Every structure is written in C-alpha cells, then in structure tokens.
C-alpha cells in the first residue's frame, strides 16, 4: 500500500522516465529476450526449427569458442588492471595542476573516447604496418629489424591489448579526476600534521576513498573490453590462426558470415552469463564498504 502511494505521489517522475524505459525495452530488453529464444532454434534466413539445447551442447564442444573465450579473458586481464593503475596515476599527477592545464589534459585523454573506433583502429593499423609503419620506423632507428606486430600469435594479442588500452583509458581518468575533487582537503592536512608522508597519504586516504570509483571503473571497463569488436575486425579479423579471436567477433562471424543465427544467439547468451557472473564477483569483492 505504501509503495502504491509513493508511486502515485511520484507519478510525474515516471512520466519523465517513460521515454527512457521505452527505448530500453524496445532496443535492449526485447532483443535480449528474443536472442535467448533464438538460442533454442536453428534460425536460417528461410525460417527456424526448434532444436532445444543442441546449440549449447555444440558450443561446449567448439574449440574455436574456447579459444575465443580464452583470448577474451586474456585481453580483459591484460587491459583492465593496466587501465585502473595508469588512470589513477595520471589522475593523481594531473589533479594538483591549475584548472587550465587540467582542462587541456582532460580533453587530450578523453579525445580517443569520443573519436570513432574505426578511425583509431585504422591509425593503429598504420602504426603496426610491417613495411612502412611508424613503430617499425622508430625501432629501426635503434638498429632493430622490422617486426610483424599483427602477424604472429603472441605479438598480435599483445598489440591488440595496447590498442584497447588507448581506446578506453580516457573515461577512467576523467572519473578519477572527479573523484579526487570529492576528497576533503582536511583529511590530507590532518595526515600531514600527524607526520604522514606522500606515500602514506596516497595509500591510507586517496586509494580507500577512491574505492567506489574504482569499483565502477573496473566493472564498466570489464564489460567494455569483453565486447571489443571493431579493433579485432579491422586489425586482425581474429587471426593469425584465431590468436585474436574474441567472443563478440565469433558471434559476428557466426551470424553474418555463416548465417547461423541460432548458434550465434547461444554464444551471446553464454557471454551474457559470463559477464554477469564476473560483475557479481567484482561487486562482492570490491563492493564492500562502498556506496554501491
């Protein structure tokens, strides 16, 4: 009864939220439900046939899927901690500067976020070019031979990680700069009076108070990196020898190259479960003593 009264009292708020709910239901919730349904069917351009759990059984026997999952986890594990550490360090260095310099750095770091992923991927494709790429030119100045950065499995996945870091680094830096602005100066002054050095202030005050932002960044960046696609499509097409194959690229390939929409839906459902599980674990491990 109390819930009904609160809803009636806040009815105008629900009217303002209605457009957002509409777009969420039509463009997010409905496709998710439809994709889950399609995962139980053999969906072709000519029609669909119910196959039950056949796609999921096939999925767990699919070596390419396990390779894609392994590569995706490697990219997440390699990118997210680096993004967290580098973004905190950059934010701590930039925050004491004056407002004008802060604005310059904010724009500089955030520019790759708002720029097209296609454009940035093409820039990195030129940088990694084995014949006339910038990176090989630089290492050639020091007497090293040209390297096929995207041509061997080990180098290719590391090269992809570097590209992804540069693409997603800007937003965490902006968030940590905002979070640093919310830490009261009185805490630092009191710590300095007690004789705490810069390192102690950082680890005893700054890092603990950045925990909610760190959790948010860790979760959102994990979800973003799990969905890396444009970089793979334009730089490697999942090669060489599936060394950079990821789950999202595998879903795209299955659906739009092989036209197996049912199996692609099953892959998407499994990815949804994996990302949800990782997000829940992060909330359990990092979400204690925060506002989340």
Strand order across the largest sheet: 1-2
> Could you describe the largest sheet, including whether it forms a barrel?
2 strands, antiparallel
How does the overall form come out from the CA principal axes? globular
Total count of strands: 2
Task: Provide the low-confidence segments as ranges.
Answer: none
Helix proportion range? over 70%
Secondary structure tally, helices? 15
Briefly note the structural class of the backbone. mainly alpha
Give average pLDDT, whole number: 87
* Order of secondary-structure elements: HHEEHHHHHHHHHHHHH
Distance between the termini: 27 Å
Beta-strand residue percentage = under 5%
Radius of gyration: 23 Å
Structure description:
There is one protein chain. The chain is built from 15 helices and 2 strands. With 292 residues, it is mostly helical. Strands 1-2 form a two-stranded antiparallel ribbon. A hairpin with a 2-residue loop joins β1 and β2. It is globular, with a radius of gyration of 23 Å. The protein starts with a helix and ends in a 6-residue tail after the last helix.
What does this entry show, briefly?
This protein has 292 residues and is an all-alpha fold. Helices cover 75% and strands 3% of the residues.
Question: What attributes characterize this protein structure?
Answer:
mainly alpha; 2 strands
Topology, pairings included?
Layout: H1 2-9, H2 11-38, E1 41-44, E2 47-50, H3 54-60, H4 63-94, H5 99-114, H6 117-127, H7 134-141, H8 153-168, H9 170-181, H10 185-193, H11 198-209, H12 211-226, H13 230-235, H14 247-257, H15 261-286
Antiparallel strand pairs: 1-2
